Amino acid sequence: MTEPLALPPCEPGGPDPGAVTASIAAWITSAAMRDLVGHFGGEVPAGPVHATLDQVAEFSKVWDFRAGTKERFDTARVGYGADDARIRALIHTLGLGGTAPARDRYDHVVILGGGIRVTLGRAGYTARLLEGGLSAGTVAGLGSLRHRDDREHREGIRLGLGALETEADMMTAALRRFLNLPEPVQTRTGDGWWHQIWPQSLPQSLPRPAVHVLAAASTRPPLRASTACSLLGWVEHVHTPAPADRILLVTNDPYVRFQHCDAIRLLGQVYGCGIETIGMDELATTEWGRPLATTELLQEVRSSIIAMRNLYQAFQK
Q: Are 266 and 232 in contact (CB under 8 A)?
């Protein structure tokens, strides 16, 4: 199987526009992208990168199985029969996932929020990284004030997590469970957000990083807070990055590519910090993940196209 296409790097000091632009151009015009688009009756046109991105983004509406605003677990399922394996192989080559951390020290570890099992998986994976020797100045779990639906409510009860109301409450429960945290030492609140804090502790062994959970406000009401909203909320309420900072984002496949691009655009380009984005390892995925339908993977190809177009456009300003 062809190796997945690499993600653009972002080292402290900020992204290299030329290198990132070249990476975006290589990805959007890759053989895997041409074959995937062609399979669904489209074409990746030759020409300037901006025009190619625009046209492929427009075409990718055929992969919008969430009808614009539905939650990810409401993505429509479509069967592709004998073509399914080929479609999934092309998506794999496009490289929507990530690898293990490249370093053993980061200034800040940021765990992106989601559904209840996804949140538990990401928090548990982060805890194992810390137990395995990864060090960090802070660990922050991000979420929103999105209320759980009945499915998540039932799953929370089944898992013994108690009465949790929102996505951010799930993150609090997950981090308390896996990092063995007490009640938060401090809680700050504002208009449409809250922020819980566990200060850095100094046990006899290794120092424990300061831990934060943020319920970010939406920057696009009445829609709930997105990944971008939570990253901007982290900057405002938890930490404003410095150019020397290295930030590790923790998510899971197949969201690594689009969330990495959003983080480069919103944090790396603006504050000059380093950004690395990783997905859960096989153990966490096996325990907390679920097999994703091909339509769910195609939806995230669309998300990645849009995120790369947004990142490319940001470099042109």
A: yes
**Tokens, residue 59:** 């075409």
Return averaged pLDDT per consecutive 10 residues of the chain, 317 residues in all: 73 93 95 98 96 98 76 68 96 92 96 92 96 95 86 79 86 94 94 93 66 93 86 96 97 94 96 96 89 92 97 91
List the domain range (segments joined by +) for residue 27: 1-97+290-317
- The answer to whether residue 284 is domain-embedded is no
Question: What is the number of domains present in the chain?
Answer: 2
Are the CB atoms for 242 and 271 separated by under 8 Å? yes
Q: Give the closest residue to 2 by CA, choosing from 40, 32, 29.
A: 32
Measured CA to CA in angstroms, residue 9 lies from 13, 39, 94, 138, 300 at distances of 12, 30, 16, 22, 20
